[in-house]
Design brief:
homodimer; CBS-domain; 3 domains; globular; 66% helix; 22 helices; 3-stranded mixed beta sheet
Chain lengths: 449, 449
Amino acid sequence: MYDQNRILVDSVKRLIRRGATSHLKKIVNKTHGADLSVVFRSLSLSHQKLVFGMMDDVEQKGVLFNELDEDSFVEFVEDLDLDLLVKVLENMSADDVAGLVDRLPEEKASAVLEKMQREGSEEVEDLLTYEDDTAGRIMVPDFVAVHQDVTAREAVASLQKEYIDVEMPFYLYAVDETNRLVGVSSLRQLVVVPPDKPLRSFMTTDVFSVSTDMDQEEVAKIVARYDILAVPVVDENNRLVGIITVDDVIDIFRREATEDILKMAGVGEEFVETKSVVKSTRIRLPWLFASCLGGIFAFYIIGHFEQSLSQLTYLAAFIPVIMGMGGNIGTQSSTIVVRGLATGRISSRDLWSVVFKELAVGFILGLVYGALIGSVAQMRFSLWALAAAVGLAVVSSMSIAALVGSLVPMVLSRIEVDPAVASGPFVTTAIDVISVFFYFKIATTMLGI
Amino acid sequence: MYDQNRILVDSVKRLIRRGATSHLKKIVNKTHGADLSVVFRSLSLSHQKLVFGMMDDVEQKGVLFNELDEDSFVEFVEDLDLDLLVKVLENMSADDVAGLVDRLPEEKASAVLEKMQREGSEEVEDLLTYEDDTAGRIMVPDFVAVHQDVTAREAVASLQKEYIDVEMPFYLYAVDETNRLVGVSSLRQLVVVPPDKPLRSFMTTDVFSVSTDMDQEEVAKIVARYDILAVPVVDENNRLVGIITVDDVIDIFRREATEDILKMAGVGEEFVETKSVVKSTRIRLPWLFASCLGGIFAFYIIGHFEQSLSQLTYLAAFIPVIMGMGGNIGTQSSTIVVRGLATGRISSRDLWSVVFKELAVGFILGLVYGALIGSVAQMRFSLWALAAAVGLAVVSSMSIAALVGSLVPMVLSRIEVDPAVASGPFVTTAIDVISVFFYFKIATTMLGI
């Protein structure tokens, strides 16, 4: 797929260079908006505008807007004609418009909402009243709901008339007089039952639904777990206000996975690769500060043992292997716990059993590698006390690392703080400092220096 | 959601303890199979069997099987009555059965296929002929396809009769005489056009399709990118053989994200938390070996500089901060590149621009932190040459780390090796070793020792 994109990017660039307008126009209008967003990444702003001007289909423009990186979108529409922008937005679904409008500077955002057709703009403004990353914010009002007393035949008829514009009519929701969600029927059921049967007689009353303020990640988990195509969103009175469809769930999972991965590596939440060197540097700078502080701390710890170190210089030579083993097993532990929590394989309620298991694994692996590294020390220096001290330091470093690496994210998750941040430079650095301290303490005690 | 699960787990356990069979049975049959799989995780094998025996609905049993962890499923069915197992499988979709049968020991797998109803078993065996993780392996034969000359009215009629069993009839595919895919129509289009129009006159001929041997991750990207609900799978002659639906795509993304994260942390590909301590230790052991070897290598490097170290003991005190800064920025770089490649934000074709940018970021951040750490050295020892050496070592360590951390995954991706493994202990360890070497080389040169 990416090879095809590359070919597309190359031809668009070539045609722009050659000024082959009519040929370019043909290609642009044959290409899917999502693919054009990839092309846009490699074009200058003026060339982006050239290509955009050639697009005939307003819906394709909407797809393109949706797929552009956050920064690129804001930059692109900065001096775009307001009427043109509004026309594109009016042809997009309300949840997508809300997502885009939210990125704009406040003044521009309200100008856009002002200009949008009455109805469309109200929908968008409604969505914008919900908190970021909640079900209310990402739902669409695009669903099929009829009264529970309606017959199967009448329901099918209203599907074909009233609801012809609903893009993905996966389910038919049943509501009561006050618009409260009381049941659901699949379209298949609707065709199979005798046409005169009222909906209430065959609908499923046990409906999965989510509230408007539920976190989008929770919503995504429910949709994935029960393999449903859309989940209805209800307000505090159980009134049906929107649905969230499976295609949005895919985006949520991908975004959340990326966020978690970036947080674990200590590079913020947003993807920085597409940003400039300066911006990227600025985002990554603070995360490294933890590591720097920890390193300086370790420096003072070692300084504290300088006297012993001058007696046995080669003690220093084991610092990297002890830090490395601790760091790596700590990363293993925290990654397993963070991902386990994210996918639901681990529950934060099982704190002690998870942490104890990690500690056990860390201890066993510590014994294995402690013996190995201790043997290397013995081979090199033929000094049993040193070999034993190094071995013991590896055991303690790896056990502590597994303990800290699993405990910190488990505790964070318990107190409802995102555990992904724990796996970043903070835990690694803490493990480094503790490992170095234990190593020198053990070595100086055992060697009597 | 997880709190609810916890309540469920607790009540099931309590009812088992009390032997409250009829109450337990009621709860079990009211609970979704996906939720029961969570309960199963906390039950002993004999209690799992007790609960399973109470389940009335064979389809619910299928959902449960699907959601069980790989090991738990194999263990659970080990001495399960073959007839019972087959009955459950016969009520599941072919792709899910293929996934489960593939986990069974060979002998059991063939016994199951033997016993399954002729037709069902053939479908499963067909899927099993495709490679793991390809489109062919995960597709379902559950689609609606009619000849392109059929009218809209006839198409609707066959949807209601012939294809009433198709679970998710998102699209209607049009084929020619030889069953080759020639077009697609949405169900909505079908109801809007005049009923006498033949399919070929209004269908979309520009169909997204994938080949049976395409990697499932690529398939998932296509479905996500174009926001489609199902993608048709064709054989080498462009004949329609199956579809892959959006709900499978969610599973693919989640699994691939987990795999990538685990690989980056050096804990294999499979989720180990639910495995026993011994198994978990065995899986994690080899990944730490790289780190151990690297550490021993660093040990010999430092040993090589022992002479200088004995003259200036405090050189050792800077080892942790230099290794830590290099390690952390290296992790940042490789994580950004690996995730960028996975999500398509970075193309492996852009090797040099990506690597150069990372190098620039590493160099700038190196200057910042080099100055900072150098100042600390100066404050502590008032020795300009040492401060300069430490600062320079930080710059070189961070620049090299950013270079190696981005270059290795980019190159691996170019030669079509999974870049996620590069971000694990291998790159970190390489960076550690190089950093330590450069540090001592720079320090001894500048200090003239």
